[in-house]
Please model this.
Amino acid sequence: MSDENACWFCSPGERTDPPAGGWLYDDGTWRVGHAPASYAIAGTTILEAVRHVLDERDMTPAELAGLGPITGRTVAAVAAATGCDRVYRWATMDAHPHFHLWLVPWWRSASTRGPRYLVDAIVTGDGSTPVEAAAAAARIGLLLER
Ligand SMILES: [Zn+2]
Model:
């Protein structure tokens, strides 16, 4: 039986590439980190439940109450920090049973859109550089502190 807490993003013993810039927000129920540079384009931010919970079906009332507001704050921070036109979402919980909501900036100038863009941005693309990821993380972190 696998350890459900051995999560690629949030477990120090499991991940090889920590969130760029560290955790940008943490209220004890929800936390936000920038995706590791090698995983996604700069500005891609992951919102996760601190508790290892799969999805809304298993969330506590406090987790459910917090999800909308922190999603809204993170969408606003990603948009302001990157100047993107849309903030795409991606959440499959494929590898681990832990709610990770990816927020991915999209610009009208992009050559693709929709699911194809998401795949390019976080699966088949080259990701970003550590410098780009750190700069985006710092901007998003400042906006989330407000
Ligand atoms: Zn996790």
